Amino acid sequence: MKTSCTHSPICLLGLLLAGLAVATSARAEPSPRLRPARPELTARTLPVKQRQEIYLRLIENFVGWAEQSGQFVDSDEYEPGGGFFKAAGAGVTWARGNSNLCLGYALLLEEFPQRQEFSIYKIPRKRLEKHLRATIRTLCLSNHNSSRHKPGGKKWGGPAWQPALETIGWAWAVHLHGDHLDDDTRKMAREVICREADHLDKKIPSQKIDNTGSEDCCWNTALLAFAANKYADDPRAARWDELAKRWALNGVSIKSDATSEELIDGRPLREWIVSENVHSDLTIENHGMWSVGYQCASQCFGEGSLAYHVFGRPVPEAYGHHADRMWRDVTSVLFLWDGDIFFPHGQDWSWKTYSTIEYLCWQNVCRGNQAAGALESRALQMIHRRQSAVGTGDLGAAVTARLNFGNQTTKLKRWAFCYLMYKHFPDTRSVSFDEAEKGARGVHVYPFTKTAIHRNPHKCVSVAWHPRLQPVFVLPEGNTTFTDPPFFFPYDRQSGIGKVTVESTDKSLGKKPKTPPPALLEAVPTHAGQGMRVRYKKHWPGGVSQYVGVYSLPSEATVYCTVFKSDRAASVTIGPLFPLHAAAPPGFEKPVEQHRGARWLNMSDHVGFVSVDPLPEKIPQDRFFLTTKKTYDVKPDEWFGRAVVVLYARQPHQRTAERSRQLQLAEKGSLGRFTLSLEDSSGTTVLDVDLAKP
After folding, report:
1. Is 215 helix (H, G, I), strand (E, B) or coil?
2. Residues 6+ apart with CB under 8 A from 488
């Protein structure tokens, strides 16, 4: 039956006022926000108990946000009353994202058995328990190896390259929350976990160039370790145990391992090795670059170690293979003053999310690496402050599309495993940060990844001559900055480079020749190993060569210089040289105070730039570039476009102005040869520069 109604003006006014009252009421009750918005940072190394508290806080905040933002989907797709999370994201499959969430949910429920509400959103305990059980069951039913598999929109499982990552989180969730799960769920979970472990009895990948097999090996060992120990009564457990060690050792395999007689877990190393996944200097490539997140893939060894320790068995020696040497020679050099890992080839994935914190925790808790513990203490505080500043429980998904919900679940998983490592390996000590950073100092040249790095208490200087990526980074550092961090320089792949476009004016030369890769001229320590000199030659399409020199002094000063040479008549446009910009993640935003003169510029007393030539008249407040975009009409074999700048880390602006008056350059018969005299905290330095010297 249809009904109709007409309203008098008075009635309409009443409805309008009622609606206004509802809207006003809604505005009067803003969404909850995390408190405090900016937790205080401390330079001291955090004690274990405080770290555990922060990890649990991070997890609870994130779980609350996942629930409040409607990420869970009630669905009868696989069974009545079921459901799952919308957890696919950048680099993260749907199954992996759901698995990560299961671990976070289970840990939270088990560590707070009496709590009935969670997070600032007051999520009921029963709701978390319901969503955890439903997600575990959906993962099992959607796995095509399950005897109870049901066709649907989601399908995953081995043999493939990621199922171990997609299983490990919810497998641990079943263990942690198992007493609260029904027999049917536990039985179904055991079947899928064991079948996924069986699928890892397969050929181990071997590749060290561009896209290593190291990551696959490292994450596969964690699941095998869990299956071998959790289900030790299974007749296949001994095989899983052997495979866990084999995958771990091949995850960090170098060429010499294949013939090594070193005994590891009762056998000569050569009997375990079937691959070469890491360069002989222990650097690791992925995504066609030095993608340093994958350099830390052995963080999964912490998850494997945890499985053995929790179930009362000794941690295999396999999990320590090359671990100490890799830290000493590679990874310790990459971790910066804030606990974040440095990206010498430019940022990969999201920025300042401290995703390698699990590597630091493993090194500290399972390997007794106290320096790593000091760095982890800083990374933990930084990510906590970021989450608190965002205020909702996530890490700021709006900052970048790659930091979406699915991608953020990987951080949740790593926080959970860090907490578990601290819980089950309680005898942990850490040194002060002052002591920890000493191992990173000096000059480090990595020929396979084509990078040189210089570290001292003032700065981190990095130069790459990779075929695709040649960024130059000069990052101010300093232990005293941690409690009040300055802005950062993002790891922009164009840092220090600029862009060159060549239009040949000599039509008789025909097509442009193939552009060769950059050629390293030298990468050497100077000043008794306390400084560094790097020179390389970059070829631009169209027949122009750029000669780049970076001279990192033992002090706070670094010299960047470049010059160009054309092998043909051409019109050459050079974009702004040495482009840099200041930025900060959520929780650390602050305006840049720019001070400047004709030949110098200073950003917030954080870094000073002094040029031999006048700087551009207009430079944005949060930017620096040495030159503006300029076009040159050049002849064959002509040198042009020379530019020189000195960067002073942690430099007061009054001192920068003084340094500009002291900087002097004298040519030596060629545009690429000159003598540079500069002042720094150690006095006067004179550099004889020949950019094109073989």
Report:
1. helix
2. 352, 475, 582, 583, 584, 585, 588
* Cα–Cα nearest to 290, from 463, 448, 513, 131: 448
Task: Count the neighbouring beta carbons within 10 Å of the beta carbon of residue 399.
Answer: 16
Contact (CB, 8 A) for 19 and 26: no
- Region of poorest pLDDT, from 228-242, 401-415, 516-530: 401-415
* Structure tokens belonging to residue 604: 């917030």
Mean per-residue pLDDT of the chain: 92
> Exposed/middle/buried for 260, CB within 10 Å: 0-12, 13-18, 19+?
middle
Q: Using CA atoms, how far apart are residues 172 and 70, in angstroms rounded to an integer?
A: 24
The Cα 236–Cα 259 span in angstroms is 29
pTM of the model: 0.94
Distance of CA 549 to the CA centre of its chain: 28
CB-CB contact of 321 with 264 (8 Å) = yes
What residue spans define the domains of the chain?
442-662
Q: How much of the chain exceeds pLDDT 90, in percent?
A: 83
Looking at the predicted structure, is the pLDDT value of residue 505 above 90? no
What are the residues whose beta carbons fall under 8 Å from the beta carbon of 611, sequence distance 6 or more? Answer: 599, 600, 626, 643, 644, 645, 646, 660
CA angle 194, 198, 199 (to 5 degrees): 120
pLDDT at position 401 over 70: no
The region that residue 210 occupies, defined by phi over 0 for left and psi between -120 and 50 for alpha, beta otherwise, is left
CB 372 within 8 A of CB 364: yes
Tokens of 681: 């905290």
Arithmetic mean of pLDDT, 404-414: 96
Alpha helices in 4-124, H assignment, sequence order: 9-28, 48-68, 94-111
Q: What is the pLDDT of residue 400?
A: 63
Determine the Cα–Cα distance for residues 600 and 397; give it in Å rounded to an integer.
37
Distance (Å, whole) CA 257 – CA 278? 11
**455: number of Cβ within 10 Å:** 26
Fold of 442-662: Beta-galactosidase; Chain A, domain 5 (2.70.98)
CB 588 within 8 A of CB 399: no
Give all strands of the β-sheet with 683-690 in edge-to-edge order: 664-670, 673-680, 683-690
| Beta carbons of 533 and 550 less than 8 angstroms apart | yes
Closest CA to 601 of 560, 547, 651, 526: 651
CA dihedral 566, 571, 575, 578 (to 10 degrees): 20
- For range 437-461, the mean pLDDT: 96
Q: State the Cα–Cα distance between residues 300 and 100, nearest whole angstrom.
A: 14
User: Mean pLDDT across the stretch 75-102?
Assistant: 96
Residues 147-166, mean pLDDT to the nearest whole number: 93
Q: Is 109 left (phi over 0), alpha (psi -120 to 50) or beta?
A: alpha
492 touches 346 (CB < 8 A): yes
| pLDDT surpasses 90 at 262 | yes
